[in-house]
């Protein structure tokens, strides 16, 4: 299964430079194994594009509060949600305080079932 893992840091406890080397090593290992398909950090600027009742609005953002900031993402191919949870727990040991939101991707017939 594919999982999108979204990281939201606790801004009071950012990842320190002492952990970056180990985190980079683990990212490289996960990429080489094929489990990690893509990853990246996100800058705190952007826009929201919203459509409601046919009207489109664009607002600066995308965050109403700093605690909502998404700092990064990772796209994994893993065996189960349990493995995704363990991967997230491992990541947080190096990233520092914050949270990871794990979202399974709809694929194949699961996507077709939405109709």
From TrEMBL:
<dbReference type="InterPro" id="IPR005545">
    <property type="entry name" value="YCII"/>
</dbReference>
<comment type="similarity">
    <text>Belongs to the YciI family.</text>
</comment>
<dbReference type="Pfam" id="PF03795">
    <property type="entry name" value="YCII"/>
</dbReference>
<protein>
    <recommendedName>
        <fullName>YCII-related domain-containing protein</fullName>
    </recommendedName>
</protein>
<feature type="domain" description="YCII-related">
    <location>
        <begin position="1"/>
        <end position="107"/>
    </location>
</feature>
<dbReference type="InterPro" id="IPR011008">
    <property type="entry name" value="Dimeric_a/b-barrel"/>
</dbReference>
């Amino acid at each position: 299964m594919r999982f999108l893992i979204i990281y939201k840091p606790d801004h009071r406890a950012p990842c320190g430079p002492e952990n970056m080397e180990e985190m980079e090593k683990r990212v490289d290992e996960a990429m080489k194994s094929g489990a990690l398909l893509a990853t990246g950090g996100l800058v705190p600027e952007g826009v929201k594009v919203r459509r409601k009742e046919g009207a489109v609005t664009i607002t600066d953002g995308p965050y109403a509060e700093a605690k909502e900031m998404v700092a990064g993402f990772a796209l994994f191919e893993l065996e189960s949600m349990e493995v995704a949870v363990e991967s997230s727990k491992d990541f947080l040991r190096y990233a520092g305080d914050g949270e990871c939101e794990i979202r399974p991707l709809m694929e194949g017939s699961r996507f077709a079932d939405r109709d």
